Structure formats: C-alpha cells, structure tokens
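@channel sequence for tomorrow's demo:
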Amino acid sequence: MDALVPALAALLGLLVGSFLNVVIHRVPRAESLLRPGSHCPACSAPVRPWQNVPVLSWLALRGRCAACREPISVRYPLVELATALLFAAVAARLGATPELPAYLYLAAVAVALAMIDLDVQRLPNAIVLPSYAVGALLLLPAALAGPGWTAALRGLAAMAALYAFYFALAWFYPGGMGFGDVKLAGLLGLYLGWLGWSAVVIGTFAAFLLGGIAGVTLLATGRAGRKTALPFGPAMLAGALLALFAAGPIAAWYGALLLPSA
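structure tokens (generated this afternoon):
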C-alpha cells in the first residue's frame, strides 16, 4: 500500500502533465483550453488519441509530427515526466491523507506557472487567482477532520502575512518584484502555513536563496546582465516545494546549530 499511492500518483501526473502542456502553451495567449483540440503547431493536423499518450507517443513518433514530420519539442515529454515525478514525490511525502489532493494540485500549478514565467515572465491571473479557492476547497476535508482547523487558520494567517510581505517589496522596489509574485506569495502562504510556521520561513528564505543563486549563475555565464529582468516565480515555487519536503529536517538542523546539546 505504501508504494501503491506514489505509483498511482505518478500515473495521474503523466496525464496531468499532458494537460499542463496545453495550459502552458495556451493560457499566456488567452486561448481556449478546449477548442480547438490538440494539434500540430506547424501544420495544424489534429493529434490523434494514440498520438497523445504521455511520453510514449513522443518516443514512438521519434519526436516528430505524424503528419508533417516537423520536430516536436522535447519539452513536452519532459513536462509530463517532471509532473509524474513530482506527483509521486508528494504522494510519498504525504501518503493517502486528506491533504494529498490539495498538494498534488499545488504541484501541478507549480509546473505550469514555472514554465509560463520562464517563457513570458508572467504569472497569469487565470491560474493564480482561482487557485486560492481551489486550494481552500481541497484543504477543507482535512480541516473538517478535526485538528486540521488549527492548520487551516495558520494557513490563512500565513497567506495574509506573505501577501503583505511581498506587497511591501513590490511597492518599495517595483523593479525587483512584480505583483504577479505578490499574488503567488499569498497562495504559497496558504499551503506553507498549513504545514507550519517553519515551512513558511524556510520556503520564503529558500525562494530568495534560489533566486539569488540563479541570478548569479546567469550573470557569471553571460546569459544575463545587471539590468536583465529575471522571473522570480520559479524560485518561489521551488522554495515552497523544498519546504514541503524538507522543512522539518532543515528546522531541526538549524535548531541544533543554535542550541547545541551539551
């Protein structure tokens, strides 16, 4: 049973990852997610069901459109694999708990928003804002279980705190922080606050640490200049996921440094 939940989550992640490829491509362009159906961007030939099996179809077609033989980006199967692995990791971390659907949704949103922010340096309201309601509804069953009400109230408090913190950063330093990041911060606060205040602190600190490392790396390799605008959403999402998996061990390690045992 312990291995079954991550395995099922991985299969679900493959399917969700296939849909996320559509989201990543169409949402920034304000296109419908339903119509037209999946098609080749080069020749507009419709993608048949057997050609739309996550990862396997790309391998079977050798990375080319079945109709016009134009190359299909390797990013499509990579998004599907990344979503599957992330779903499996989240399921292994949480198990078959009432919170699991909420954090699987967060994982899916993280993949979509990170890719879109890297592509167009924008975190679309069409994804971020509805995710507040979806996240709250998915966490509701866990809150109704009893002790979850404490976590729910902490999540709401952390949501307000992170939103206010990022809002202040965007207000006083508009060149370094966008209001898309502010809206995302509140959503991440809801999820991190549910886990605990240590997760909030670690997830926030990790975002700035990872963002700084990415910025320095790009500067050192000449891929960005001092005035280059860099998306911060991926770092925020990576920091939140790091806190999900490792907030407890990191907090314990840091506590041991501050208060070493005799």
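heads up for whoever presents: The chain has two domains: 1-96, 98-262.
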